[in-house]
Amino acid sequence: MAPSVQLRRSGLIAVAFSALFVLSACTPPGGAAEDFPGRPVADEAPVVDVGAGEDEAGVGGDEGEEAEEAVDPMEPNDEPIVVWWADGGQLALTISGSSSCPVVGNEIRVLEPAGEGNRVAISLVERPADEICTMDFVPHTTLFWTPYDVTTTEPLVVEVMDTEVEVPIK
After folding, report:
1. Where in the chain are the domains?
2. The pTM is what?
């Protein structure tokens, strides 16, 4: 066989393995899809009927004022928050902590599939005990692809940080 044919075959094999490696490294099974400081962007927030509580003239009533005063569940707090994201294609885990040593989700695994409990567990990245962190308290979000074995049509129980969070039906 001619050396140029061998070289082309070797090159094609190398390209195929490289492509396989790159594609497999994009999102490991059960691994986090993305993480970032702050809360998820508001485009995924539930739709609020701004017309609620308006009379015929378009003047706001009591109900419209109450909606504005509602507490934002994504503000920093002591408990982890989990919500459906990307129309149920992902789960967003938001945990507040130090901005220099954020609490980041690491892996999601199914404990009970849909129809048998619809329950997952999310593990967190372990940080060194002697790590020096700032004393601020800010939210950090980790996105996970929704596992195939769970459904958005049943409440989902998420175990994280020795806590159970129930995510309502999407």
Report:
1. 1-27, 31-167
2. 0.66
